[in-house]
Amino acid sequence: MGSETGKNRYSLTEIFAIKFVLADILIIAVLLLAGPWFALAITALLVVSVFLVWYLTQRVDRVDSDTETAASSRTAAERDPVTKLQERYAAGDLSDAEFEAKLERLIDANERADAAGVETAALDLERAE
């Protein structure tokens, strides 16, 4: 019933379904054992808790998506050597010859990694013939 992200998280619909089943059992038990006023009080608390669960799951999902977006943009920039090389060239740290030599080395390294079967998703370069 959990989502397939590997984090063992439940969707909002699953949380509400579980909560309502448990709430029904609790309300019936309180109604039978304690009386209608206690059952009414428990029902009111459960309704408030449903809204609280909804609010917290929305807030956590927003924070998770913001964190994932920031982390993915940060890691993409950190692991992309071509972008770093281009930034250094644009800043004037590298001459034309140095830039081309370093770029050629990156292309050769990418081709060797592809030949060895190593994943190079962060470095998608093709040799310009």
Please render the helix and strand layout as text.
Layout: H1 12-33, H2 36-79, H3 81-90, H4 96-116
Helix pairs in contact: 1-2, 3-4
Distinctive features:
4 helices, 2 domains, 129 residues
Could you describe the 3D structure shown?
This protein has 129 residues and is an all-alpha fold. It has helices at residues 12-33, 36-79, 81-90, 96-116. It is rod-shaped. The protein has 4 helices and no strands. The mean pLDDT is 75.
Provide a brief overview of the structure.
By secondary structure, the chain is an all-alpha fold. The protein has four helices and no strands.
Question: What is the number of strand segments?
Answer: 0
Low-confidence segments: none
Q: What is the beta-strand fraction?
A: under 5%
Query: In whole angstroms, how far apart are the ends?
Result: 52 Å
Oligomer state of the chains in this structure: single chain
User: What's the helix count?
Assistant: 4
Assign a percent range to the helix content: over 70%
Using only C-alpha atoms, the radius of gyration works out to: 28 Å
As for the number of domains, it is: 2
Mean pLDDT: 75
Shape: rod-shaped
Class from secondary-structure proportions? mainly alpha
How would a textbook summarize the main sheet? none
N-to-C series of helices and strands: HHHH
Domain SHOCT: 80-106
Transmembrane segments: 12-31, 37-56
Protein name: SHOCT domain-containing protein
Organism: Natronorubrum sulfidifaciens JCM 14089
